[in-house]
Amino acid sequence: MIQHSRVVQWLVTGLVVTVTLFVVLFLGWLRVHHLSQGFLEQEAQRQRAALERIVTTAEETLTGATPWVGRTCGEVNSSLQATGSLSPYFRSIWLVSHGKMYCSSVIRSNDAIDMPLPAELVPLLTGTREMFVAGTPYVRNAPALALFVPTSATDGVLGFIDGVYLTESLHSVKTNDLAWTAMTIGRVSLTSEGPKLESVGVATRGAQVTLDSDHFSTSLAGSSALTRSLIAGQAPVFLAFGGIIALLLGILTFRHLGPAQSMRRKIALGIKRNEFKVYYQPVMELATGRCAGAEALMRWHHPDAGLVRPDAFIPLAESNGLIIELTRALLKQIRNDVARGALPQGFHIAINLAERHLRDTTIVHDIERLYGSLNATYPMIAEITERYVIRDTAAARNVMAELQRHGIETSLDDFGAENNSIGYLKRYDFNYLKIDKEFLPVTEADTVTRNICDSIIHLAERLDMTIVAEGVENEMQANYLRARNVTYAQGYLFARPIAFDDLVQFAIAHPLRGLTPVNPMPATVAPMPPRMAG
Ligand code: C2E
Ligand code: CA
Ligand code: CA
């Protein structure tokens, strides 16, 4: 009821593993993307440099021809032809004067040609230095790059770099790792796919890297082979890494949400929120029927599960170590209750210790710190059950000796319930022996249990231990114990574990001879419920 559902545990673990794998795969994808970008960036720089070399060399050639502008074609024609054929890349070089192409490297003529600049080239006279053209005056359907080096507003040298050179250059840098490469000027591009002009939007769709230069921009995209080879290189690392991380996180989550851990957190939270309450079960002096003390028993007022009995949380708190904190909370409550002074002087308060308490003297200091001076008026008894196996007997003996040195008596709880009884008696020095309810005769005719109980009583007397019989549920059992001079008894016959105010009422109704409350009972305390009457 107060435990975590297994379904939630598996669901959350599955979710954590899935999310972890997704995150690791995403990181892997980022890594592949990063490597791919780095590689493409390098390729784009290589490509830009190759194209820059062509354009710059061509521009230098054109600049070299600028002194001929304005001179007659006859004068410079042969020099222009020589330049056009000796310089790489050029399809033709033209001299332009007053907006007209008047001398060409490919036409042997002494007369001026006087061809007006085609409309598409007019922007060259208004500041544009380079542009792609679909064809040139004598080679109509083969794209070229027009380069213009002006000498005045209307004059200059115009050169056409053949598109084939550029396409070849674009193609030569393209390895298997690249899907395509492109060179763009304005809104027009030339790609590695062939000497054909395309609009920039179509040619460079999906570009992964674009680099600008003074004259043009260059773009490219990686091929699926590149992605595949990068994934093949990274996948083993990321899959192994992701698998290990997901597995570890999965295990951690599964354990964290496991019943034991979830219970641990609930107990820790319960301590913080003061959900643990102390109940007191009266211990009666059999000969007189008076209340001599009480055993403090823990209850958990759980917000969802209601009142939880100790068997459901004490063993867990013992195994995960929270019992130390839990006992501190118990001691604080006992101190607050008892310090009100409503109980008679000499009234004993018994607490239960766990095996962990016997490993070192922390409990002695805790009792000293939290209960300290109250021990003189309301002596504390530490009950140590023989149900658990004591790991470190030397440490346990030391803790018990320290408790007794601080005036805290010890009681061997649940005597006979397990196999450790005689060993405990031999090894440790107890003041009280609590006979487990299992050894109280159930009927008059129950001779076997009677004989065992008789032997236990006899043994305790021989060892000079005071006996407390627990689980006394009827008069027959009480009479049996009385007849054998057993000093104390505890059980439903007298009272169940009750809240402190009820304990005070009970103690007043069953006063120990000569013992009176230190402080009169506060008027607000409710009368004792009928079920608790002894
Ligand atoms: P225990 O120390 O043997 O406590 C006696 C148990 O017997 C109590 O159960 C009590 O309610 C029950 N009892 C008392 N009279 C009768 C009776 O006449 N008939 C029957 N059938 N039972 C009776 P409870 O309170 O449920 O405690 C169970 C166990 O939880 C305790 O056994 C004790 O070992 C442990 N425990 C309770 N509080 C604490 C604590 O603060 N610290 C530690 N370490 N253990 C605790
Ligand atoms: Ca006990
Ligand atoms: Ca007991």
General description of the model:
The chain has 534 residues and is an alpha/beta fold. The protein folds into 2 domains: 1-257, 2-Layer Sandwich (Beta-Lactamase); 259-509, TIM Barrel (Alpha-Beta Barrel). 42% of the residues lie in helices and 22% in strands. The chain has an 8-stranded mixed beta barrel with strand order 12-13-15-16-17-18-19-20, surrounded by 5 helices. A 6-stranded antiparallel beta sheet has the order 3-2-1-6-5-4. A 5-stranded antiparallel beta sheet has the order 9-8-7-11-10. Strand 5 and strand 6 (156-162) form a beta hairpin. Helix 1 (6-65) runs antiparallel to helix 3 (163-173) and helix 8 (323-338) runs parallel beside helix 9. The longest helix has 60 residues, at 6-65. It is rod-shaped. The two termini are 34 Å apart. Ligand C2E binds next to strand 13, helix 8, strand 15 and strand 17.
Number of domains: 2
- Rounded to the nearest angstrom, the distance between the terminal CA atoms is 34 Å
- The CATH class assignment of the largest domain is Alpha Beta
Helical/strand content category: alpha/beta
Give the distinct bound molecules. Answer: ligand C2E, calcium ion
Query: DSSP strand (E) fraction?
Result: 15-25%
Widest β-sheet, arrangement of strands:
12-13-15-16-17-18-19-20
The CATH superfamily of the largest domain is identified as: PAS domain
Question: In CATH terms, what is the fold-level topology of the largest domain?
Answer: Beta-Lactamase
- The portion of residues assigned to helices is 40-55%
Entry keywords:
single chain, 534 residues, alpha/beta, Beta-Lactamase, TIM Barrel, 2 domains, eight-stranded mixed beta barrel, six-stranded antiparallel sheet, 42% helix, 22% strand, rod-shaped, disordered C terminus, binds ligand C2E, binds calcium ion
